[in-house]
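$ ./design --mode recover --in tokens.txt
reading tokens...
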């Protein structure tokens, strides 16, 4: 008879609890699907006697996750503690050193140490799977590594931080300021302990770095992600972008261009009628484009107990079935050093500025754009407030360097008040 596959679960918080629930509730279904029972041998967390809403009495307990990772009766080490360094990394390294396969939801650890961990795993004949680390319940890692493996990937795009999408759509829906919605999100417990991970785009950039590695066969390089958060987005940007037919999203984009690999996580305008534009609340969406398949859009819950545990268990069942895929879709030693693009692909830009409400102000602004080689596609001026008038400009495609040059020239005029806002418009 086939031996049960035994899990050692480190971390019994939101995700760990969800994994235990699935193992307990779906034991028969899982065994039918894989031909092998999946059992939990032992667990670890910081505090032993905590009510976790699931029974863990039947499982052995380890105070130290590294000791759990080394146990003889553990076949798969399931790391659900979080944190890029410390216990999570030490325990994953220990598991690999002891020949265990690893399933993790830890994007921070993999975005920073994915290459060395993947190399160690392959040397030891182990696999590391991390579906839950990217876009929660959406099986995007599997789609890229397996279903689309016959494609040259042309672009990966995604809204992969539900908290940011909640903040942006709530600002628009309720007409509230960024600060007001940020405070709401904090009160609802939506924000990480360090909010910069969410609103600074870091969490989403970790995920994008992982997808980029799989999509383009490059070593994971978190530092190569050009990163900008949503902290500077104002309600005026949101309302006026909507007026022009756009929505603002914290959008990750990875694409290979003639100038190298372009990887950025930043606020972008997308058409309001596009699937990305219609994405509401904390939901995630990943758009994959391949030369043969065309465009695929995947939408679903990017976080939460059930969706994240679903992704963890998908990986566990793969291992139970004997599916063994390299961490980033090809042997770690064959992953190339990423060649970062020195300039980004030209795009249309949305510019919002306050002009002095006096004759010649628009002409001076248009001249600054023209001198920088940026041409105007659409322009809208709103009713003036006191002595200033808000002006919106959508440019034709321009290089970011030319837009920055135009902004510098505008600052030198005596008609632009404060710093104009420039946001890229992404073609979908
Ligand atoms: N929550 C989500 O929706 C979600 C979505 C995608 C990915 N993830 C990722 O999944 C992982 C877990 O997230 P989570 O939301 O489940 O976190 P969580 O609710 O904060 O739970 C973390 C668990 O790890 C345990 N832990 C922390 N440090 C430990 C240590 N040094 N030794 C032993 N146990 C330790 C904690 O123990 P105590 O309970 O005793 O404190 C807790 O049980 C993270 O990498 C996160 O980024 C989460």
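writing sequence...
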């Amino acid at each position: 008879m086939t031996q049960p596959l035994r899990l050692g679960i480190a971390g019994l918080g939101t995700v760990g609890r969800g994994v235990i629930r699935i193992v307990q509730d779906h034991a028969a279904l899982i065994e039918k699907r894989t031909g092998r029972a999946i059992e939990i041998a032992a667990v670890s967390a910081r505090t032993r006697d905590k009510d976790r809403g699931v029974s863990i009495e039947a499982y052995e307990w380890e105070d130290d996750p590294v000791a759990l990772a080394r146990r003889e009766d553990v076949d798969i080490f399931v790391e659900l503690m979080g944190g890029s360094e410390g216990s999570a990394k030490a325990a994953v390294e220990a598991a690999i050193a002891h020949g265990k396969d690893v399933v993790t939801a830890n994007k921070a650890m993999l975005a920073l140490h994915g290459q060395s961990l993947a190399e160690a795993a392959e040397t030891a004949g182990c696999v590391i799977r991390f579906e839950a680390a990217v876009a929660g319940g959406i099986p995007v890692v599997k789609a890229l590594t397996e279903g689309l493996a016959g494609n040259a990937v042309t672009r990966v795009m995604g809204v992969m931080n539900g908290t940011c999408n909640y903040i942006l759509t709530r600002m628009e829906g309720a007409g509230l300021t960024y600060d007001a919605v940020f405070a709401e999100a904090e009160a609802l417990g939506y924000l990480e302990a360090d909010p910069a991970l969410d609103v600074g785009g870091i969490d989403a950039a970790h995920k994008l770095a992982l997808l980029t590695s799989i999509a383009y066969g490059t070593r994971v390089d978190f530092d190569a992600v050009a990163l900008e958060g949503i902290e500077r987005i104002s309600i005026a940007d949101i309302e006026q972008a909507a007026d022009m037919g756009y929505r603002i999203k914290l959008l990750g984009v990875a694409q290979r261009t003639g100038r190298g690999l372009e990887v950025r996580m930043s606020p972008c305008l997308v058409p309001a009628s596009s699937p990305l534009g219609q994405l509401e609340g904390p939901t995630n969406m990943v758009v994959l484009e391949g030369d043969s398949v065309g465009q695929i859009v995947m939408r679903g819950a990017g976080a939460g107990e059930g969706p994240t545990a679903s992704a963890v268990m998908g990986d566990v069942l793969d291992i139970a079935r004997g599916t063994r895929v390299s961490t980033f879709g090809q042997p770690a030693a064959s992953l190339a050093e990423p060649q970062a693009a020195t300039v980004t692909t030209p795009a249309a830009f949305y510019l919002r500025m306050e002009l002095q409400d006096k004759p010649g102000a628009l002409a001076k602004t248009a001249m600054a754009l023209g001198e920088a080689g940026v041409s105007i596609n659409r322009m809208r001026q709103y009713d003036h407030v006191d002595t200033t008038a808000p002006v919106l400009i959508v440019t034709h495609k321009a290089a970011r360097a030319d837009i920055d040059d135009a902004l510098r020239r505008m600052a030198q005029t005596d008609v632009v008040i404060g710093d104009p806002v420039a946001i890229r418009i992404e073609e979908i």
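exit 0
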